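Q: Convert this sequence to structure tokens.
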Amino acid sequence: MTSLLARTAALPDLLGLLAHDLARALGGLVPAMDAQVRDQLALDLTHECRSRVGGHRLVSAPHFTAEELRGDPAYGLLYDAWLAMLIGKTGLPEGWATVATLRLLDTLRQVAGGHYLPKGRQDRDMEKMYREFRGSFRETGLRYRLSAERVRQLLVPYIEAERAARQRDLFSGN
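A:
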């Protein structure tokens, strides 16, 4: 079996560091877990993090408790996904998994807080994104796994076209 170091070599530096720190945190939370299972779970958590909030800057918020982090949209998405993964892959009771997930979120904040997480490329349906847009570029970005800045770049032409169409009707008397 290859080591965690070898398996994280293809990841960007921040994600490799995150995988190592999550493995270390899992070792402290579930000491009886086999090292290979722990390392694989840390990689799975890292990939889940990348797929859900990649392209976003995670807030650092050192004054927040791990429980308060759940109020942030990015950490909230990760909490739900990571909790389900911990329960499904470790068989921990829900109470223990909840505590473990909060500790892992805190580890994430310590490692990646204040940094943009890299992400992979993906296809997007612009019409659907625009229909579901409710005024928050950040929330739409989290839903579509894009940065708020990228969502703004993609949606501004749609917003301006709609505004222009409404203004023409307003001034033409129709």
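The first helix runs from residue 4 to 7.
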